[in-house]
Amino acid sequence: MANGAKQIDITLIIMLIGILLVGCVVGFAITKAMPILVLAGVIGLLIFIVSFVWPPIALYLLVFSMLLSPEFGARETQGSGFTIRIDDLLLVILSFSWLARSAIKKEFGIFPKTPLNTAIAAYILLCLFSTIMGGIYGKINVVGLFFVLKYFEYFIVFFMVVNFINTKEQVKTFVVLLLITCAITSLIGICQIPAGERVTAPFEGEAGEPGTFGGYLIMMMSVSIGLFLTSESRRPKIILAVLIVINIIVIMATESRASWMGLPFMYLTFIVLNKKKLLLIGAMVVLLAASPFILPKNVTDRFSGTFETEKGYQAKIGNKNLALDSSATLRVLSWQGVLKDLKFHPILGYGITGYWFIDAQYFRTLIELGILGLCVYLYLMYQIFRFLLQTYHMSDDNYVRGLTMGVLAGFISLLLHSIGSNTFIIVRIMEPFWFLMGLVVVLYNIETVKQNKLQSEALKIHENVAN
User: Fold this and answer.
1) What is the pLDDT of residues 331-356, one digit of tens each?
2) For residue 292, what are the contacts with CB-CB under 8 A and spacing of at least 6?
3) What is the pLDDT of residue 363?
4) Which residues pair with 316 in a beta bridge?
5) Inter-CA distances, 313 with 91, 298, 371, 421, Å
6) In angstroms, rounded to a whole number, what is the distance separating the alpha carbons of residues 466 and 75?
7) How many beta carbons lie within 10 A of that of residue 283, not counting itself?
């Protein structure tokens, strides 16, 4: 009897109890909730079931929701209030589905092994610990913890991609979908240009965030350039060339100086890594020579206006006054405030959202996570750079090299972009970025298996010859 009892599937019992409880809750909620909430709940349940049965559907939904999902609510820069997007809800549903599938099907690890796991774990744990300490000191409310969960969302995207994508063909499919999404958002951006305002991503409300859109576009344009340089087919080259031109136009129209700052470093990366150096240098010379004639006046005014002092705004560095516009001046003053206030919490910082708004990734990381947190963050950045460069050099496959080179160049541009923006915590940049990182990890794993197999076969041949 005891042996028979042990044969009872405990997991099945727990699932049946869970279904019963959920049924009771849903039955009660239907009688009390508004019809729209009931409909949303039913749709969420359907998405959960479908993604549980067929996991890749979760990633297909995510690809398009990253940039094309509306945002609701309002959040102030000091942390009060909150915003929520459809892809936030979608990611929560898909995460539960992923965890449930991983618990039942043991062959799926919750967090697959990747070269970035240690750095990711250290960063998330430090964010959590620093924010909890900030809450203990009364500087942070529960919103800070939601921000930490938001950061964790990006890494969930990364691990889901590594878990559920296994072949090079799947990688190519998702890259195409990412580029289609980029093309859609870019065309929407083109349509905004006649209005004379700075171009922003769709569904961002009245104000919008041109800098965020610019960061996203420069990353995706970098991927397009990487694939263009290594593609062996004419048709993809033409399509990618058109997308690159559209991206350049929209990036200029965002008037995002942080995005413009990343462009030369992104391009320099391609010159260093790619064999077509003369082509790249020649294209750069032509663009620089033509820029005075093709750049719109608002773009040139935006660039030159950076170093023009506005009334009431002046930044002081040492004993010298720095001539900057209002936006740049406020950034410099906020950076100086960070260095001044860091002495009160130098090691772990003030915690996520524990300090006032700082629009610069490095200084924000320093004040929120302290010196220790900044070191861990820089370690994560170094590991990403090292991994991408290693993957690029280890492969002789043109597609792998093209995608990896594009992601690496885009990553370097984002490092520059983050000087004047909170790049690596912005959802519309980080979800696509970590999705791409997951795709590169998949290709890295495929290349590693292929090379190990070749080495094994070469060793067997060598042993046969020796015998």
Assistant:
1) 788 888 899 999 998 999 999 888 88
2) none
3) 94
4) 321
5) 42, 22, 30, 20
6) 71
7) 12
Residue 461 has which token pair?
């041949």
Show the beta-strand stretches assigned E in 112-270.
Answer: none
310 band by pLDDT with thresholds 50, 70 and 90: low
Beta-sheet strands, E only, within 256-384: 315-317, 320-322
What average pLDDT does the structure give for the chain?
Answer: 82
Q: List pLDDT tens digits, range 429-454.
A: 999 999 999 999 999 999 998 888 87
User: Residue with structure tokens 């990403």?
Assistant: 384
pLDDT of 67 over the 90 cut: no
**CA angle at 429 for the pair 324 and 362, rounded to the nearest 5°:** 50
- Token duo for residue 356: 């006032």
Residue at token pair 């972009």: 417
Other beta carbons less than 10 A from residue 263's beta carbon:
19
414: closest CA among 403, 424, 428, 425?
A: 424
Token digits for 36? 């729209």
How far apart, in whole angstroms, are the C-alpha atoms of residue 78 and residue 96?
30
CA distance 129 to 254: 37
For residues 235-256, average pLDDT: 94
Q: What is the pTM of this model?
A: 0.85
Rounded CA separation 63/180 (Å) = 10
Q: Is the dihedral of CA 386, 229, 158, 220 positive or negative?
A: positive
Residue type, 269: T
Structure token pair of residue 205: 């409300």
Rounded Cα distance, 151 and 121, in Å: 12
Give residue for tokens 């260093």: 272
* Whether the Cβ atoms of residue 54 and residue 60 lie closer than 8 Å to each other: no
Q: Tell me how far CA of residue 45 lies from CA of 39, 208, 334, in angstroms.
A: 10, 32, 45
Q: How many angstroms separate the CA atoms of 445 and 467, rounded?
A: 33
CB atoms within 10 A of CB 5: 7
What DSSP designation does 421 have? Answer: S
Q: How is residue 283 written in tokens? A: 């294209």
